[in-house]
Amino acid sequence: MSLSFSIPLAIRMVGEAGQGIILMGSILAKSLVKEGYWVAQSQHYGAQVRGGVSYCDTLFDIEPIDYPLADHFDVLYLMHGIGSNNIEKLKRNSILFYDEKFVEKLPQHINRITRKIVKVPASRVALEELSNINVANMISLGVLCSVTQLVSEEILIETVRENVSANYKDIDEKAVRIGYSLIEKRYPLKFYKKIERLGKGYE
């Protein structure tokens, strides 16, 4: 007898503390719940409020998740070079996003891990079009959801407006809309099943 079960997809967003990584992850998780997924999330704050490493992991699945942590990721969003060591945690043929302003270069062997690499001008666009680098995280979130086709633009905007302060609602909505239309590439994520055979007596 065989047992079939779904494998959760895992996303890590990582950057410098102060870039809004935790807020990105929280909004993504809540948006995925609205899209009907089972979701688990964990967060890590650097030792410093600004300057340390901050990351947020989001696992989601079409079935309940029995273990909420991941060692390797289907998607890595790198908002700062300070988190570049996380590239080693990418699965084969996964998706790597990186902010061109704060990630100077990628390791030479990255093409042996994946060719799905998306250079994102989020911080530059935030400054040039919205005059506020603090909304680069919302541009980035729009890019991630658009490229992976995980969350619709309207659900993402609805969730953003529910979870940011009143002063940021309008500018964050603009940032998400910019991000959603910024990159033409599409790398839809797909769930897959793992099948294991049960030993005699475990049917």
Automatic annotation (TrEMBL):
Signal peptide limits: none
Keyword RNA-binding listed: no
Superkingdom classification of source: Bacteria
A Pfam family: POR
Domain Pyruvate/ketoisovalerate oxidoreductase catalytic, residue spans: 17-169
Full protein name: Pyruvate ferredoxin/flavodoxin oxidoreductase
PANTHER family xref list: 2-OXOGLUTARATE SYNTHASE SUBUNIT KORC (PTHR42730:SF1)
InterPro entries membership: 2-oxoglutarate_synth_KorC, Pyrv/ketoisovalerate_OxRed_cat, Pyrv_flavodox_OxRed_cen
Keyword set, alphabetical order: Oxidoreductase, Pyruvate
GO MF, any single term: oxidoreductase activity, acting on the aldehyde or oxo group of donors
Organism lineage string: Bacteria, Thermotogati, Thermotogota, Thermotogae, Petrotogales
